[in-house]
Q: What sequence folds into this?
């Protein structure tokens, strides 16, 4: 019976969906998660479970509120072996430092359901800008996974249900943004002036699914399974340049940046109560083979 129930719960997790990227995939969510190497699929039980494993939200039976400040200053460099003089003219691109605020809360629902349902919400708010994306030329040496990943507002919302004391299931979404717009410029070549210019930029929200299971077969032992869909930021900025109503140039600028693959996580944690010791390990399958051509 338990095997059949788990199969029914895991089945919907295999459906592919496309969505944009999240800062937590690289930098982690909360100091505890980063200190434990993001091995949180069987551990997260506060607002960070909205990202690591939504099923963990039911472990807390009272209201939980959390906040944090993320300060990061990467110290990375690229050592290059130049084979030709023209290669020296291509600059390097290393990630910049950033600052962001993390907020979140868990709301257990009591009453007749006896705290077996919990809602969780969390967000990441960059301090300098709500959304920024750099489409770096593929010829420029760079750290592909970093780019401007932290410069993007992120919201996560999840719900978890505990049908049995040994089993909890959860699902949620990451709400991010795509960037679309256009640029129209009219030039009067003889008068050497711009007669008209129009710039339009639309930021549209999109959602990526997150889901998970949390199993407690023995006291102190927890097994977590979680899934996060492939993430990417798609941008489209078509441009039109009209010269004296005689020549019209159409330039379609579009692409994909900040790609993060589909993740499947299997985590195991054991709590040694007398020693107040928690041990956690996790295996992650990241489908980088599905990444688009930069």
A:
């Amino acid at each position: 019976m338990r095997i059949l129930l788990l199969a029914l719960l895991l089945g919907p997790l295999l459906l592919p969906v496309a969505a944009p990227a999240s800062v937590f995939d690289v930098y982690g969510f909360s100091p505890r998660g980063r200190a434990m190497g993001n091995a949180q699929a069987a551990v997260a039980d506060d607002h960070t479970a909205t990202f690591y494993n939504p099923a963990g939200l039911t472990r807390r039976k009272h209201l939980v509120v959390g906040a944090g400040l993320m300060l990061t200053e990467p110290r990375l460099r690229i050592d290059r072996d130049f084979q030709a003089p023209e290669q020296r003219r291509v600059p390097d691109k290393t990630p910049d430092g950033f600052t962001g605020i993390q907020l979140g809360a868990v709301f257990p629902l009591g009453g007749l359901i006896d705290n077996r349902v919990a809602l969780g919400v969390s967000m990441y708010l960059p301090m300098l800008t709500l959304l920024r994306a750099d489409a770096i030329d593929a010829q420029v040496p760079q750290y592909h996974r970093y780019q401007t990943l932290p410069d993007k507002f992120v919201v996560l919302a999840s719900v978890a249900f505990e049908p049995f004391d040994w089993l909890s299931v959860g699902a949620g979404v990451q709400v991010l943004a795509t960037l679309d717009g256009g640029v129209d410029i009219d030039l009067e070549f003889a008068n050497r002036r711009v007669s008209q210019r129009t710039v339009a930029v639309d930021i549209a929200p999109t959602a990526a699914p997150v889901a998970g299971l949390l199993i407690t077969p023995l006291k102190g032992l927890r097994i977590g399974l979680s899934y996060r869909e492939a993430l990417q930021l798609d941008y489209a900025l078509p441009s039109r340049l009209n010269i004296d109503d005689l020549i019209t140039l159409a330039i379609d600028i579009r692409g994909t940046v900040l790609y993060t693959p589909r993740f499947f996580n299997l985590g195991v944690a054991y709590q040694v109560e007398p020693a107040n010791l928690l041990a956690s390990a996790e295996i992650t399958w990241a489908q980088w083979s599905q990444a688009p051509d930069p």
In short: Residues 186 and 245 are 8 Å apart (CA to CA). The first strand starts at residue 64 and ends at 72. The chain has a mean pLDDT of 79.
